[in-house]
Amino acid sequence: MWMPLVWLVVIVALIPAALLLLRRSRVGGLLVRPAQGGGPRLVASLGLGPQQRVVTIEVGEGEARRCLVLGVTPHQITALHQWQPPEASVAEPPSGPVTGGGFALALNRFRRDLSGGSSGGDHGPR
């Protein structure tokens, strides 16, 4: 008598749990469509720790287009750098998940340039 009610409660409880797991997985990130018409577009992302990331996004259109490098933590978002990309650098959004390979190299080059070009201040990924 109570068995169908128990199964109903179990199934209803599994739906939010499955959605949460899907949202946190890499597969869930593939379901998100890139922004259309000048909205923010993720260019690259690099995880620095369990809850810290450095992301590069592109915002705006035409002359107002800007690239932003942001430091993201659970409590705040900090603008680290911004620039206006040249028109030739407009690229299609990546078709697969964004990886940190090229972005990590560019970030290390940027750090080295900020520290005056000395190789002693450049700490690679740990």
From TrEMBL:
Chain segments annotated as coiled-coil in the UniProt record: none
InterPro entries for the chain: Flagellar_biosynth_FliO
Location within or outside the cell: Cell membrane
Keyword Membrane applies: yes
Ranges that cross the membrane: 6-23
GO cellular component: membrane
Top-level taxonomic group: Bacteria
Keywords: Cell membrane, Cell projection, Cilium, Flagellum, Membrane, Transmembrane, Transmembrane helix
UniProt-listed GO biological process terms: bacterial-type flagellum organization
Entry protein name: Flagellar protein FliO/FliZ
Organism: Sphaerotilus hippei
